Amino acid sequence: MTKGLVFNVQRYSVHDGGGIRTIIFLKGCPLRCPWCSNPESRKAVAPTTWTKNGQQETIGQWQTKEELVDEVMKDEIFYRTSGGGVTLSGGEVLMQADFAAELLAEFNYLGVHTAIETTGCFPVKEIQKLTPFVQQVLFDLKIMDPIKSKQVIGVDIQTVKENFEFLLSQDQLELIPRIPLIPEYTTEPANLLAMIDYLQNLEIKEVHLLPFHQYGSSKYDYLGWDYQMKDAVPLTNSQVDTIKNQFEAAGITANVDGLE
Ligand code: SF4
Fold first, then answer.
1. What start and end residues bound the annotated signal peptide (predicted)?
2. 113-129, pLDDT tens digit by residue?
3. Nearest ligand 1 atom, CA 140
4. Residue 63 belongs to what domain range?
């Protein structure tokens, strides 16, 4: 029986898609965003151990499609009454694209709204496995400069753009760009200008902005990893408003949303 590696299932979420949702966090991500708030999800599709409050814990459990469907369907009534559903997040969902496609197909069959979060960091053929079964894609855009993107987060921006543009061509799904607002990285003026230029050229009318936070910092301690953002100062409301206004002046509605 096929299994997927899951490191969390979060019920009653009001982020990451519309309405009340269950978020399934799939483990594994090839990127290395310094601000990552789920560092335990990174690297290979394999369980990780960390030490929390003196206790060693294993992060990541192999679960079958049936187990996950049973868990998600407990809240079916909430999805129907709130316009919610299920969201596959990560990590990077494309690391387990075959399993994700199986899960999404099942939720489609059951009439549950499906969303995914992705950075679009693999060749387009991976996301094509998922698109027949997805109604909404929350697509992270981070660093637009090709060299910095590769250096800082380890992703080829050209691949990201190919994925984004492929999804944009799929009329059956809703594509929402999400931009984490990370001081000294994504909020650099040249990066914001490049982002707005790219989105304007594609006639994108709406983005979600995700202001930086440090909620994941203790996880780096549990993992024994260095947290590069420990001295970073979160943006003020006024700085977030300035960025929001910059998008809106370019004709792109910017919603300040949940946090990356
Ligand atoms: S893509 Fe997401 S999960 Fe992967 S390193 Fe970046 S923030 Fe973390």
1. none
2. 999 999 999 999 999 99
3. 1
4. 3-256
